[in-house]
Write the structure tokens for this entry.
Amino acid sequence: MQTQASDIYSDLGLRRVINAAATLTRLGGSLMPRPVLDAMMAAARSYIDLPELQRRAGEKLARMTRNEAAYVSSGAAAGLTLSTAACITGTDPAKIARLPNDLVGLKNEVVIHRCQRNGYDHAVRQTGVTLVEIGMHGITHPWELESAINERTAAVVYFAGANFEKGALPLATVVGIAHARSVPVIVDGAAQIPPIANLWNYTEAGADLAVFSGGKALRGPQSSGLIVGRADLIEAIRLNGPPNAAIGRPMKCGKEEIAGLVAAVEFYLGQDEPALIQRYERQVARVVDAMAGIAGVTARRDFPSEAGQPMPRALIVFDSAALGVDRDEVVRRLGEGDPYVEVAKSATDGIFVNPQTLADGEEDIVIERIHQALGRARRHGG
Ligand SMILES: *Cc1c(COP(=O)(O)O)cnc(C)c1O
């Protein structure tokens, strides 16, 4: 598989990436395991009733994730758009036809914590709704949510995870206030796996819909996402989605992606998650140990990870005065060659090495490349 992919990529003049950064869309998300690839191949071999495939796949996904209903979208961002649309229109075709340009008289506001504003809320806004912000960066009061909800409120959107939840109301509080006013809550948990239990945690906590990326920790197709939650809202999503001529029509999820996502969820549920996290711990420990004793370099285990997930990553800090080279130069050197290494930056002087997107043992290549980058640095730095 790898050889084939390399051939396609080198044919296009591209260099391969060793991804020690994260499940980033711009780097290809994640790598699909064999059973997911097999499911996509099998799905590609015949025509199928696509809406019926979507329905059956949704039923299976709902059972597997302990939810009432489920839907496969073309990504978590598409899931946000479809979920928002569903909360505005319900199953009313006349309302569905009006999105995104004619929302006068419809529920056309979505409440969001100010501290949770981020680029992905564009996916909510593209339905045509106006965001109503609550709270300050450090703190949000329950009365702010209470007073932001009115007869125009379609939903509250809540970005889950340790990073977004700092300064926000707890999800349980949001659900309590919203439900008392008959307003649904949409949770974005796109990158909040592990733990896999989040596939049911948010809805068990009262969220009406929860959205996940298929192409991050689930290791499904990069252009897939999972929406779980209330059956009536999933039905409304279906009506807003492809192949129907509605706002979700450009967010098409193919038969291969639907089959691949089902296989990916099955694969993840069948694996030993604590053992997976133990593997991450071993990889991180190996990286930290390999930096010990290099003058000007300090390394330690960092927790939680990039999107606030409860798993470790390595933080390596470079003292440019001692090394004669700064962090940005190290990153630049890691970015040379084929394959090259991508890492995430920390503050002004550090990098993170994230094991989630490294194969077992691939951390050794990253270690070697960091050593090389510093070795050259020591020579040039004299
Ligand atoms: C990655 C991410 C998304 C987008 O997910 P896709 O599956 O790439 O569409 C949305 N929201 C958050 C918080 C994310 O981290």
Observations:
- Residues 25, 75-77, 120, 159, 188, 190-191, 213, 215, 225, 307 surround pyridoxal-5'-phosphate (CB under 6 Å).
- The domain at 47-269 is CATH 3.40.640.10 (Aspartate Aminotransferase; domain 2).
- The chain is about 40% helix and 15% strand.
- The first strand starts at residue 17 and ends at 19.
